[in-house]
């Protein structure tokens, strides 16, 4: 009796055996329905054999096999790598790779296929396979006679058994559909400059081999043109390209550029903001090889792609590639791993590369490709001015220099962007007499004052309450909002420039699906003069009439205890600064800061991120911080501090005992409260562990994780975070 080993999305670190009823087509990668206790669960078959240690009377059958293509080998391998590297169960890692509506399995077709084509994998594997199967051989010979293609009209007229064979080949990645008006001849819309040309040539030369590139290009240097030009020959040979982007909001814009540069190309987008039906269609189009470009956020790294030829990760430094809960994987690192497994080049693009990638390039593991100049020959780097913050506070945050500069833009019919990384009206509310401060009752954090409607809100847990009329401590009625958020600046700007058309962009104003696109259209149509908003505005949007960028409140990052805060600030400043003056009009950036000598601001003024990255790396090396060490975080939370402390004390003792044998050394630090010590009513604590060697840390973590599972104390929830985004 055949036995299938199934990985299920549960916390148990094991797979489960089921017997396979006759007539069910079960093989590794198949998505199946089974019973687990009283529940029905969807899981993935990881192996099929004849042995099991489960007693026959306890062995249950596979209930159903979903009518979706099986997960291909490299996706199964990627999930296994992620499970092992990030210390999660295989079932939970595989759940990330399952198609979006694995429960239903409704088949939705993607692009319209004109021609079926043998993939390189098919051309290699099929000749041998079909010698044993005469019926399949006949179908294969039709492909062989017609330059490896079969028109869809002919495929439709095939006898049923050959149609089944064709479907099987598609699912195995041996055959892919080519849409009606596909690529190849359609060139780029404009010519590339020398640096772009060299980059494209280097990537092309690496075709068919695992070669990681760091595409280091200043903002506006045309990285997207390089991606598309490098992808064009891959498309022309019938293969697929995977492109990851950090933000859902950027995908429609990028798709529009792709359609313009490569008309007729079939594109599948995959991100969590899409309705399940659309995501399912995209998943199928990717799996069948119909979609030539698969474009998406983090999760798209798991897309099944039988003819993968190139991987691109745009804005590789972006924090959103690291999942912050559940399986805490890093999609950029997963993309590099997958490219390695498939033997294809991977391009990591950024204007402000992560220190990890920068170090890889410096030490020769990644090949660096520089785009030092802006692609538009009329564009020059923006002029940068640092102005004091202190004087501005009295005037609702907007200093004289900023006010004059915005006024000048209004007079010339140009646009301004005012950036502050805080939504709401003011980040706190204080009593002028006794210094009472509004605190979240469930978090160790201040409440943010909001207007329209007036409310105190917690940005960590969502708690909201009425604004008190008087101080609850001393009865004083003079309660003052302290600091500046987007709402307050919007008001201040409206008061200073009554005739200006102003829009605010932050999480509060862009809840609706198309709200952000609407604002972008208004900016493009020049029906807006001033944009005020959070970091949503920092990325990738090109507005030719936008010539001024003002940055407020950036100094807050300098007070952060997170070791990555400075790196993030510099990246953000360079990104947001890059929005100014992208076409023929010169741009200006004004930053209000009380620390003009700080390295992050100096990098912006000098337009030299590389020097800044080198300086920061030297600092990290001296402090033995990532990327010079490899780190993991044990995070624990519970309703009572004593439970957290007791658990972490056990965990620490177990860790110290295990680390004693570790070679090279693994450092286990003492338990400390998290930066946000209480969130949503839960007390939080953590332990940092580090090692100079990744392998040593990995060995330690597997042993430690087993020990952690044995610590009594069910009231504590814990998780390991490998390569954490920060130590907070
Ligand atoms: Zn008071
Ligand atoms: Zn809260």
Secondary-structure-based class equals alpha/beta
Shape: globular
Q: State the major sheet.
A: 7 strands, parallel
Task: Round the Cα radius of gyration to an integer and report it.
Answer: 28 Å
Question: What is the overall number of helices?
Answer: 20
Uncertain segments: 103-112, 180-189
The number of E-state strands comes to: 32
pLDDT averaged residue by residue:
89
Strand content: 15-25%
What's the gist of this structure?
By secondary structure, the chain is an alpha/beta fold.
Strands, helices and their partners?
Blueprint: E1 3-7, E2 16-19, E3 31-36, E4 39-49, E5 60-61, E6 64-65, H1 73-85, H2 90-97, E7 113-118, H3 120-130, H4 134-145, E8 149-151, H5 152-156, H6 160-172, E9 175-179, H7 194-205, E10 212-217, H8 223-236, E11 240-244, H9 251-261, E12 267-270, H10 276-287, E13 293-296, E14 308-313, H11 331-342, E15 346-350, H12 355-362, E16 367-371, E17 383-387, H13 400-412, E18 415-420, E19 428-431, E20 448-450, E21 455-457, E22 464-465, E23 479-482, H14 486-496, E24 502-505, H15 515-524, E25 530-533, E26 546-552, H16 565-577, E27 588-592, H17 599-606, H18 609-622, E28 630-638, H19 641-659, E29 666-668, E30 672-679, E31 682-691, H20 694-709, E32 717-722
Parallel strand pairs: 2-5, 10-15, 10-16, 11-13, 11-14, 12-13, 14-15, 17-27, 18-25, 18-26, 24-25, 26-27
Antiparallel strand pairs: 1-2, 1-4, 3-4, 3-6, 7-8, 7-9, 19-23, 20-21, 21-22, 28-31, 28-32, 29-31, 30-31
Helix pairs in contact: 1-2, 1-11, 3-4, 7-8, 16-17, 16-18, 17-18, 19-20
């Amino acid at each position: 009796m055949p036995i299938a080993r199934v990985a299920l999305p549960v916390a148990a670190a094991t797979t489960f055996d089921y017997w396979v009823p006759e007539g069910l087509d079960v093989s590794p990668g198949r998505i199946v329905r089974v019973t687990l206790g009283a529940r029905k669960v969807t899981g993935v078959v990881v192996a099929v054999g004849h042995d099991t240690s489960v007693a026959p009377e306890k062995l249950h059958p596979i209930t159903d096999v979903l009518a979706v293509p099986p997960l291909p080998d490299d996706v199964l391998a990627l999930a296994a790598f992620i499970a092992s590297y990030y210390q999660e169960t295989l079932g939970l890692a595989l759940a990330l790779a399952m198609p979006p509506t694995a429960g239903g399995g409704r088949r939705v077709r993607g692009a319209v296929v004109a021609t079926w084509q043998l993939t390189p994998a098919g051309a290699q594997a099929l000749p041998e396979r079909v010698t044993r199967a005469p019926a399949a051989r006949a179908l294969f010979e039709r492909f062989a006679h017609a330059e490896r293609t079969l028109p869809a009209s002919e495929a439709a007229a095939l006898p049923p058994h050959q149609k089944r064979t064709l479907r099987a080949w598609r699912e195995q990645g041996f055959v892919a559909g080519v849409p009606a008006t596909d690529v190849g001849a359609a060139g780029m819309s404009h010519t590339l400059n020398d640096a772009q040309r060299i980059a494209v040539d280097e990537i092309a030369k690496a075709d068919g081999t695992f070669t990681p590139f760091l595409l280091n290009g200043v903002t506006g240097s045309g990285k997207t043109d390089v991606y598309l030009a490098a992808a064009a020959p891959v498309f022309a040979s019938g293969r697929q390209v995977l492109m990851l982007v950090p933000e859902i909001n950027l995908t429609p814009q990028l798709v529009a550029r792709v359609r313009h540069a490569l008309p007729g190309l079939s594109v599948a987008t995959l991100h969590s903001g899409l309705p399940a039906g659309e995501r399912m269609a995209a998943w199928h189009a990717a799996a069948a090889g119909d979609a030539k470009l698969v474009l998406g956020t983090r999760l798209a790294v798991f897309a099944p792609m039988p003819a993968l030829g190139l991987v691109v990760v745009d804005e590789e430094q972006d924090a959103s590639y690291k999942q912050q809960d559940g399986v805490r994987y890093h999609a950029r690192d997963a993309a590099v791993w997958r490219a390695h497994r498939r033997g294809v080049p991977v391009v990591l693009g950024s204007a402000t590369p992560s220190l990890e990638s920068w170090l890889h390039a410096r030490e020769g593991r990644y090949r660096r490709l520089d785009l030092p100049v802006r692609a538009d020959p009329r564009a020059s780097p923006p002029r940068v001015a640092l102005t004091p913050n202190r004087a501005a506070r009295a005037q609702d945050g907007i200093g004289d220099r900023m006010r004059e500069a915005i006024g000048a833009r209004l007079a010339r019919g140009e646009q301004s962007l005012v950036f502050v990384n805080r939504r709401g009206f003011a980040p706190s509310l204080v009593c002028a007499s006794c210094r009472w401060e509004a605190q979240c009752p469930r978090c160790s954090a201040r409440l943010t004052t909001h207007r329209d409607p007036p409310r105190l809100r917690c940005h960590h847990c969502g708690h909201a309450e009425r604004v008190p009329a008087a101080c609850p401590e001393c009865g004083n009625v003079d309660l003052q909002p302290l600091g500046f958020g987007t709402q307050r600046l919007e008001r201040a700007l409206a008061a200073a420039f009554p005739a200006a058309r102003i829009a605010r962009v932050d999480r509060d104003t862009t809840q609706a699906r198309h709200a952000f696109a609407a604002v972008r259209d208004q900016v493009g149509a020049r029906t807006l003069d001033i944009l005020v908003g959070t970091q949503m505005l920092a990325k990738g949007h090109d507005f030719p009439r936008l010539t001024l960028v003002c940055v407020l409140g950036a100094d807050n990052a300098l007070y952060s205890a997170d070791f990555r805060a400075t790196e993030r600030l510099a990246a953000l400043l360079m990104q947001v600064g890059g929005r100014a003056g992208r076409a023929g009009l010169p741009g200006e950036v004004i930053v209000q800061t009380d620390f003009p000598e700080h390295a992050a601001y100096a990098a912006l003024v000098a337009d030299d991120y590389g020097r800044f990255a080198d300086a920061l790396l030297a600092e990290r090396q001296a402090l033995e911080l990532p990327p010079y060490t490899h780190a993991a975080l044990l995070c624990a939370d519970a309703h009572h501090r004593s439970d957290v402390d007791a658990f972490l004390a056990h965990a620490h003792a177990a860790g110290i005992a295990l680390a004693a044998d570790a070679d090279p050394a693994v450092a286990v630090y003492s338990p400390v409260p998290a930066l946000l010590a209480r969130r949503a009513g839960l007390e939080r604590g953590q332990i940092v562990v580090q090692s100079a060697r990744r392998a040593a840390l990995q060995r330690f973590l597997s042993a430690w994780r087993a020990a952690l599972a044995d610590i009594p104390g069910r009231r504590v929830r814990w998780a390991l975070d490998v390569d954490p985004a920060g130590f907070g």
